[in-house]
Please model this.
Amino acid sequence: MNKVKKFLNRKGVELSARRYFVDAMSSMAVGLFSTLLIGTIFSTLAKYVHWELLSEISSYVTAGSFATGAVLAVAIASCLKAPPLVLCSAGVVGAMSNALGATFTIGGAEKTLTAGPAGVFFCALVAVELGKIVSKETKVDILVTPCVTILSGALLAKLLCPIIAYVMYWLGYFINTATEYQPIIMGIVISVVVGIILTLPISSAAICAIIGISGLAGGAAVAGCCAQMVGFAVISFRENRWGGIVAQGLGTSMLQMGNIVKKPIIWIPATLASAITGPLATAVFGLRCNGVSAGMGTCGLVGPLGVIEATDMNALTVTGIILICLVLPAILSLAFSEFMRYKGWIKFGDLQLDEFSDLHLPKKNEEEAKA
Model:
């Protein structure tokens, strides 16, 4: 047993839930940003600037494309520190598993389902780790490593992808349909849950893409993510100033994770804000969003752009986007946090980010900071 463990350590194979479901999924989000997200942005811009090249690029990175699957798998392989032959071979596995699925009869009609990013995630993980195990173990490594990586991934894709496609379809269908029927209750649940996932060291974008979240459920997810990002950016302004506004508001609220672990109560203002903006997004403004964009929030303004792409635009929805994505998260989070500061539950310095500590050194107390 010790020999096996030493061998796996030498090959860089670490059987860890954090490595696979946190680190690998976060890297997968990078691949999603490079393909589906950019495709969404280009597709939206193409409608306004009428540049055919943007439309052409977006067509190559749609959800079922080989390009998307290949990039996602390479991103996962990179996170797992795969050697070059495994890294390149993973692209083939990703392209195949992203497009594979099965045809099912649903509601009396035949429907072709693909495993999509969920298929890529599971198949690429296994194929890359097996490829790493055999890498440089033979004199014909240039043949053995790609063969093992691609064949193992392909066999697994043939076996798992139809099942994954079916499960993910019904999971997404349940969430999306439930939100249409119960926009207030599901608006609260989805907004809070996806917003929390965004701030945790897990990729909310990847999860939204895997589940296939869309429609009003996607709008609620955007609301929750925006509430976390804008909320933390605003309530921590006195500690982190403008650098914190940009880093959290256009970057990620995940930067606050260290402070949340030390003092979980600081998570309350943004989470309460998401519980309010979520049902407003679904039941009042009817905001919609699809897939990976729903889990991005205000990061690069991808969330609002995704809403623009998926929602019929009129005066009400434009107002809704501004209020739900920017104004209300800021006002609500600030109101809740100021009350908690007044009560002494949140103190000056609790939201201080190390990245900005040299730009704005914490004072001894809040009165000195205001002075």
In short: Residues 141-181 form the longest helix (41 residues). The longest strand covers residues 101-106.
